[in-house]
Description:
- The chain is of the alpha/beta class.
- The chain has a single domain, classed as Metallo-beta-lactamase, Chain A.
- 34% of the residues lie in helices and 24% in strands.
- It has 9 helices and 14 strands.
- The chain has helices at residues 35-45, 59-62, 65-72, 148-159, 174-184, 189-203, 213-219, 228-233, 241-254; strands at 3-10, 14-21, 27-30, 51-53, 75-79, 91-93, 98-101, 104-110, 119-123, 128-132, 135-136, 139-140, 166-169, 211-212.
- The strands form 3 sheets. It has a 6-stranded mixed sheet with strand order 1-2-3-4-5-6, with helices on one face.
- The termini are far apart.
- 49% of the residues are buried.
Amino acid sequence: MTLIVDVFQARTDNYGYLAHDTQSGRTAAIDAPEVEAIKTALLHRGWMLSDILVTHHHRDHVEGIGALKAEFGVTVTGPRAEADKIEGLDVLVQPGETVMLGKTAFEVIFTPGHTLGHVCYFDRPGLHLFTGDALFSLGCGRMFEGTPEPMWEGLERLRVLPDDTLVYCGHEYSEANARFALSVDPDNLDLKLKAEQVRTLRQAGRFTVPTRLGDEKAANPFLRADMPALAAATNLVGAAPWQVFAALRKAKDEFKG
């Protein structure tokens, strides 16, 4: 295996990730939510930070860039479309390009909506997908800047990836996401099983990531906006999938359960 991923908690509900290329010894932080959490994870693993890969410009994903760059001299890579909003970027990438971490190649996938320039990073040989705030376990990011149709198209780009892909998302929102998902797709047996798994993990104080993409395809309502059950749940039978997605996202924003 070329890539090892270390998962740790950062801030209040962020996930932090270190991606370590075993052949070169290079280590990237995926986003920079909290300096001390990242440094503790590095110390635990005995790795030296060489890179930061940024998914989007929100503060809880970029706050540690300056301090980490000053201490480790890292190379910071992020979306060209958000270069004016992220301080400290060294390498600007666009969708369809590839970022190298030693021998590991990360494909840059465009997933706008949460922010206009949001990107994800996909290690195809190792099947590791870092989704930032575009896709969560049983959920997706709140649509702060974008519009529904491009955001749905971005999620479709993720959905076509192999089922065995491991999804590493930006936050621990799984229990709340499960409650909403069950409210709109209550007869989905895969969702019921996934929700129970999430409940068990959280009761044990364990992380719910990585989550398997195939399980998300079966259970996550935001990846199923083209399914009849979700169109019916939103009273949009016959509507375009992106319209169903928009209704689901609005319903989640207003959900009190």
